[in-house]
Specification:
five-stranded antiparallel beta sheet
């Protein structure tokens, strides 16, 4: 027969082991503290995307395993359906949903979770923007940023909005004598049209007939309103730039939270008949001529975004407008 007796020392060790296991289980079953979602609101809204800005009250980040946004076409979305996740670096979080359907109602909620539970912010109901069509049948997504609504892509049309043709300026043009309206593509290559759009000179931009009906070339003041909404010239470029491999690899700060999707379409006209900046800089017309310097001809005001730079307010003498071909973004009336 085996000996079933335990020594007092063995009993004490056994009790200590049971106590340690019980304490461990008690710790694991205690819910970790989750942040309080103080507010969630629409930052920008597009035809096919939305950016939501949320603020949190956080006492301990260590317990957070996931934070993000969930959405659905039905009310009360959860992480069991469509969701994104991201990291929370401070008390403010921008989360972005893409691939939505234009003119469609959705519901979204910001969430935070640990291994035990999720907490949700207030439900946000929204309807995505419509797209807009130009005279040639090109469709553009649109984005509402603050009080403004912009096209998401650079303009591509080769016709005025009355249906008449815009002259194409080819490589055989005598640039030294050129003095009329026109458009071209970067390096005269139509392959650049779909991504970067067309490049237009001042005569076309100033015609008042370039953008689709109900839209216009933005003024210098309207550009400033956009930049100010995104935090000013020093930080707005990271909100404006398209993400991915379109800009250089040094473009690590780009997030496109604005939904503007700024593209580096380059320009034509730095020297007669030459092109520069594709993939490195985007330059867009405004409709404003600035006469504050006392120059009777004035200065055409533009906005430029470079590789790793602030948004720049630039200009050139209006008598050179014929030979400068830049990108165009239209803004809704």
């Amino acid at each position: 027969m085996s000996n079933c007796k335990f020594s007092s020392k063995r009993v004490l060790v056994f009790i200590c082991l049971l106590s340690a296991i019980a304490i461990s289980c008690e710790k694991e079953s205690t819910p970790l503290t989750l942040p309080t979602i103080k507010s969630s609101k629409i930052f920008t809204l597009s035809s096919n995307a939305i950016t939501i800005k949320s603020t949190f009250d956080i006492t301990n980040k260590e317990g957070i395993t996931t934070i993000g946004i969930c959405w659905d076409s039905q009310s009360n979305p959860s992480v069991c359906g469509n969701f994104t996740s991201s990291s929370l670096s401070d008390s403010i979080l921008y989360t972005r949903i893409e691939g939505l359907v234009p003119n469609t109602k959705y519901y979204a909620r910001v969430y935070a979770s640990n291994k035990d539970q999720e907490v949700y912010g207030p439900e946000i109901e929204f309807t995505t923007n419509n797209t807009v069509e130009d005279i040639e049948g090109n469709f553009y997504n649109t984005v509402t940023i603050g009080t403004q609504t912009w096209m998401v892509e650079n303009l591509k049309t080769t016709k005025y909005n009355d249906g008449s043709d815009i002259p194409f300026v080819s490589s055989s043009t005598n640039w030294a004598e050129f003095n009329s309206s026109g458009y071209n593509y970067y390096d005269y290559q139509i392959v650049n049209k779909n991504l970067y759009g067309a490049l237009y000179n001042w005569q076309v931009v100033n015609s008042g007939e370039l953008c689709p009906d109900g839209w216009h070339i933005p003024t210098d003041k309207e550009w400033t309103t956009l930049i100010d909404y995104l935090g000013g010239e020093d930080v707005a470029s990271e909100f404006l730039k398209a993400v991915g491999n379109i800009w250089p690899s040094t473009n690590n700060e780009a997030n496109n939270y604005s939904g503007f999707c700024a593209l580096p379409g380059g320009e034509s006209g730095t020297a007669l008949g030459s092109f520069s900046g594709l993939g490195r800089e985007g330059i867009w017309w405004s409709s404003t001529i600035d006469h504050s310097s006392g120059d009777s001809e004035g200065w055409n005001i533009t906005r430029a975004i470079l590789e790793n730079s602030t948004v720049q307010r630039n200009g050139f003498s209006s008598n050179a407008g014929t030979l400068n071909f830049l990108s165009v973004r239209c803004i809704k009336n």
